[in-house]
Backbone:
């Protein structure tokens, strides 16, 4: 049990020197854990990104995964990506002015228009129920990873934006903000979380493009709905999108 001042009550923490992927380690440990647990590693050798990509982590960046046993449906569990994004936004706002931050649907955090943090949700369960959920977060704190060629949202790190944070300090604050999001979901549901996410959203009300394997949809980013879907106003009418890559 972690007793560090500021660490949220009811959450445990494991700090590893090195690991393949904190998400993979979280999946291995999940069956044994009785409480929500953050797993952080100083070095991650085979970090996983969304859509099967590799997540590179130079020394001094944060790699951490939270293991949860959420109640409810898989769709309800998946709302944690917005909660993690909100918690990342609040944590980053302790270091840089929040006007420099933006949330990109569904779960990237931008700083000065570049990607500073990513979220990878992985779950296991059967019959529509979720046994455990892993919320993996990677934050470029100290350095920009090599070899990332995302021209639309090039990686950026907090240090290059003029702010310093150690992974330990950042996680302490992130875990606190995340625990607050869980309390809000439990007591008030998704609505306040959605409103908060929308306050930080990049390009709300503007034209954006959502790319899926079926093609591209361009429209005005109106809102995210009660299930976290992206709502675009297009010349053909309103379109709700459950999964896509977004471009500005
Ligand atoms: O592609 C993305 O944007 C998501 C990146 C998520 C990376 C983090 S680092 C900690 C955790 N462990 C992993 O293997 N991936 C996530």
Residues:
């Amino acid at each position: 049990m972690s007793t560090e001042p500021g660490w949220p009550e009811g959450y445990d923490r494991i700090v590893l020197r090195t690991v393949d992927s904190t998400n993979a380690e979280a999946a291995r440990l999940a069956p044994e854990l009785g409480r929500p647990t953050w797993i952080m590693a100083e070095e991650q050798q085979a970090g996983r990104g969304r859509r099967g990509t590799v997540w590179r982590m130079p020394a001094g960046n944060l790699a951490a995964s939270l293991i949860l046993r959420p109640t409810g449906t898989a769709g309800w569990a998946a709302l944690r990506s917005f909660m993690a994004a909100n918690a990342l936004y609040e944590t980053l706002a302790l270091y840089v002015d929040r006007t420099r931050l933006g949330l990109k649907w569904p779960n990237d955090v931008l700083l000065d228009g570049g990607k500073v943090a990513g979220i990878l949700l992985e779950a296991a369960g059967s019959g529509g129920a979720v046994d455990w959920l892993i919320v993996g977060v990677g934050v470029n704190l100290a350095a920009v990873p090599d070899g990332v060629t995302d021209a639309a949202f090039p990686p950026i790190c907090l240090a290059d934006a003029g702010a310093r944070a150690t992974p330990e300090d950042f996680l302490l604050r992130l875990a606190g903000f995340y625990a607050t999001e869980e309390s809000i979901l439990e007591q008030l549901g998704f609505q306040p979380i959605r409103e908060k996410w929308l306050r930080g959203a990049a390009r709300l009300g503007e034209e954006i493009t959502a790319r899926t394997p079926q093609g591209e949809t361009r429209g005005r980013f109106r809102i995210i709905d009660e299930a976290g879907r992206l709502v675009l106003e297009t010349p053909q009418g309103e379109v709700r999108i459950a999964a896509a890559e977004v471009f500005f």
